[in-house]
Design a protein that fits this description.
2 helices, 15 strands, five-stranded mixed beta sheet, mainly beta, globular, six-stranded mixed beta sheet
Length: 262
């Protein structure tokens, strides 16, 4: 009888030990805030790029729109860039379409030109800095290998050298995949290695050691960069702009999400 009771006690102690190992010592508080890249339920702005196989009629420039039309296939499309420029061969065009990006520090997100099927669109960001994520939600069955390539460019004119500069500040390629989100935040930040002018040192206020400087702060800094008696800047930059070069090959719906940075 004593042996049986002892055996039962040992079983109970063993089960309590297993339960203790399986349970966390301290429950972690649940974070219900936005977690870009994992939790997409937090506050954000949606921009939908919709691929069309023909040029759209009408006016789609309503600032409240969240949709921009673009070509389903840009393989035969180019847009003009300025000459003389710093790119190899001094080209007069770039492949794909151009989406101009601006930021209104006193406004909100706004669709400036919602029809890029003619090769040009324009979108305005609200104040602040953002984590940016992109996902392809639908593609055309006519394209076996559908993809979309996006390059972020800073454009600036050098009044001293009579030369247009095009600075590649980021690139992403997206395709259809289950719950596949691509981190495109890099498109909106400029690092010291991407800065061809030597303007950034990495010690500026607001410079992130991993991302760089927010592109619109970068352009604002370049615009006020000036020559002084101690250190002559080799450039006099003006007409600064930021745009996306978009090459689309069969994607019908691309969603771009902007999550505010804390």
């Amino acid at each position: 009888m004593r042996t049986k009771i002892f055996g039962i006690m040992m079983i109970i102690i063993f089960m309590i030990g297993v339960a203790a190992l399986a349970s966390p010592v301290e429950a972690k508080p649940k974070n219900n805030g936005p977690k870009p890249g994992t939790d997409f339920n937090g506050p954000h702005y949606n921009l939908n790029l919709i691929g069309k196989d023909k040029e759209m009629p009408g006016d789609y420039d309503n600032p409240d729109r969240h949709t921009m039309f673009m070509p389903l296939n840009t393989s035969d499309m180019t847009f003009d860039i300025n000459q003389d420029n710093n790119l190899p061969g001094n080209p007069s065009t770039m492949e794909g379409i151009k989406i101009e990006m601006t930021q209104n520090k006193d406004g909100d997100f706004a669709m400036i030109d919602g029809d890029a099927t003619d090769g040009y669109g324009a979108f305005e960001l609200a104040p602040g800095k953002y984590h940016v994520y992109i996902a392809v939600k639908a593609k055309s069955p006519k394209f076996d290998n559908a993809y979309t390539n996006i390059t972020g460019w800073v454009e600036a004119y050098d009044n001293l050298g009579d030369l247009w500069y095009y600075i590649d500040v980021g690139f992403v390629s997206v395709s259809k995949g289950k719950n596949k989100w691509t981190d495109a935040t890099d498109l909106f930040f400029v690092t010291t290695t991407e800065d061809d002018f030597g303007f950034l040192t990495g010690s500026e206020p607001g410079y992130d050691s991993q991302l760089g400087m927010w592109v619109f702060d970068y352009m604002s800094g370049l615009d006020t960069w000036y020559e002084d008696s101690e250190e002559m800047a080799p450039y006099d930059l003006s007409d600064l702009a930021y745009f996306w070069q978009v090459i689309n090959n069969g994607n019908k719906l691309i969603q771009v999400r902007f999550y505010p940075m804390n």
